[in-house]
Amino acid sequence: MTSLQPTKPELMDINELDKMLGNRPILPGEDASAYDKLTYKFRETMSPRDIVEEILVRDVIDLTWEVQRLKNFKRDFLHLNRGNALEKVFDQFAGYSFANREFSDKWRKGDPKAIEKVNEELSSRGFEISVVDAMNFRLQIDQIERMDRLIMQAEARRSAHLREVDRHRSVLAEIMREAIQAHENSKIIEHSDQD
């Protein structure tokens, strides 16, 4: 008795695929093993059935990597500019320059004494640390908006590629249905000719 369960197609060797599709989009300092894990999970989940799907799935993987990279850039950008925001908060709201570049860099990097001093100074003026992040957001809003647009564009391109995988599979399924129907019709004709 044969099983009616569809079998998963055998996945193309990842090294062979890399030779055909080119280098992975990994920048110096990025974790190549994380990209490999992402590739494995996508290919296992999506089970590309032919080279067209392999290309589309690879594009989805690369775009997912790009989206995460852009989100990391945004996070790092905001972190790098926290010291500037700290200085601006004290200049604007405290009326004096409490923080100089060296001190604000220590605070941004997590120096315990600098953190304690900043918290004390902010608290004595009725502020919490969130005011620094709000100032950072205000100072960097144009760059944040540009980064968000880039992230949304990459996410939209990824969604389009996922739709292409679905479209490719639905077209293939329709072709297969037509072939099965044609085969079944030919069997009916063959059978009826023998009567």
Considering the chains and any ligands shown, give keywords for the structure:
disordered N terminus, 78% helix, 195 residues, 0% strand, 7 helices, single chain, mainly alpha
Task: Give me the secondary-structure topology.
Layout: H1 14-21, H2 32-46, H3 51-80, H4 82-94, H5 101-108, H6 112-124, H7 130-194
Helix pairs in contact: 2-3, 3-7, 4-5, 4-7, 5-6
Describe what you observe in this structure.
This protein has a domain at 32-159. 78% of the residues lie in helices and 0% in strands. It is built from 7 helices and no strands. α4 (82-94) crosses α5. Mean pLDDT is 84; it is low at 1-6.
Catalogue the unreliable spans. Answer: 1-6
Order of helices and strands: HHHHHHH
pLDDT averaged residue by residue: 84
Note the quaternary state here.
single chain
Q: What's the alpha carbon Rg, rounded to whole Å?
A: 28 Å
| Distance N to C terminus | 29 Å
The fraction of residues in strands falls at: under 5%
State the gist of this model:
This protein is mainly α and 195 residues long.
